[in-house]
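Sample intake sheet
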Amino acid sequence: MAFFGVCFAPSNQNLLSPSRPKPRPKPPLFSTSMSDSSSHKSIPNDIKNPHKENPSICLSKRKLNHSIVAIVLSATLPSISEAKAEELELERYTDSKEGFTLLRPSSWIKVDKAGATVLFEEANKGANNVGVVVNPVRLTNLGEFGSPQFVAEKLIQAEKRKENTKDAEVIAVSERSGQGGLQVYVFEYKVDSTRGGMKRIFSAAFVASKKLYVLNIAHSDKPESPLETNKRMMLEKVLHSFDAAPLT
């Protein structure tokens, strides 16, 4: 039988007979054992190289690391469900009497204010608001008054004439088509004032049925607490939803 790489064979030789020199055992073929002066012993791979990790252990560690990364990312990155929840914060508001419609933040409170046709304010943050003003005009479309850039300059000049305004700057100007090909001017600008500090303003305007419709969205945008990306996206959806009410 074989034991630790050393072979022992049975013998019929009488134990009392003169001893004969025994043949030296041959080492096993393809042996990976290490030998010393006394015996040949097979050394397990993990003992031979204690610094070499078992492949199954390495695989388990790799899976564990991937799981940890996945957990961290899921905690820090916005998920698809969160993005959908953000969309659900908006609801349609339509004023059939005045003839306009828009999406508005469902959690914002409707308040009465002189000069505003409708006004919604964020709870406990009245400086953040969405308001619409409707006034009669002699125009049939905004193009008769001027280009989007011209109107934007008039808006900024009006802001700068206010006593509490420290600075005002146009960020973006564009034009889009509304209900029935209606001309809609869209503006974004920022205002720094002694009342409320820095604000981001999103505005849209159109003329329909000899009425001027102006949407104004104001939100705090201070350096120490800038407007968050998700909040901005929501407000932009409000901005681009502003339109004449569909004819019934």
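Comment: The chain is about 25% helix and 35% strand. The longest helix spans residues 55-76.
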